[in-house]
Amino acid sequence: MTSRPAVEQHLRDLARLRRVRDRIDREYAQPLDVEALARGANMSAGHLSRQFRLAYGESPYSYLMTRRIERAMALLRRGDLSVTEVCFAVGCASLGTFSTRFTELVGMPPSTYRSQTAPATAGMPPCVAKQVTRPIRNREAPVTQRQLA
Questions:
Q1: DSSP 139
Q2: Residues 6+ apart with CB under 8 A from 128
Q3: For residue 117, which of 104, 96, 132, 97 has the smallest C-alpha distance?
Q4: First and final C-alpha spacing in the chain
């Protein structure tokens, strides 16, 4: 049987992790790193990373980059900013890292995404366009027969 203080501590830890996730959602465009997030939650960076992965299935850095890419997708669909401007607007400091991560999550480079999806989502409400064009993380990608063999 689990002791009451252990359960209460677990719930407090989950609340702290939720605050970290909420901070990432709010401040994705700011220069955030795991150390800064851990300091804000009064945890070590290693402990935060382990606990965040247990709670949400991915590291804090991966979660941050996914939020940045989702926002970048919305900005690229608008079509009025260059890829470089979008990269810096979402808080990425390196165009190369941004392009690589974007391609991993979305399946195409940012410039291709902008040219192909801007016309495809024209006239679509932004909330619907966001759902339709949501990036698929590797662990969410559908399993094909070849992968099973």
A1: G
A2: none
A3: 132
A4: 42
- Judge contact between 86 and 72, C-beta under 8 A: yes
Side chain identity, residue 7: V
Query: pLDDT tens for residues 52-109?
Result: 999 999 999 999 999 999 999 999 988 889 999 999 999 999 999 999 999 999 999 9
Integer Cα distance of 31 and 124 in angstroms: 32
Rounded to the nearest 10°, the torsion over CA 54, 56, 61, 67 is 180
pTM recorded for the entire structure: 0.76
Residue whose entry in the numeric block shows the structure tokens 């009451």: 4
Backbone dihedral angles phi then psi of residue 127, each to the nearest 5 degrees: -65, -35
The SS3 of residue 107 is coil
pLDDT band for position 142 (50/70/90)? Answer: very low
What is the C-alpha to C-alpha distance for residues 59 and 69, in angstroms, rounded to an integer?
A: 15
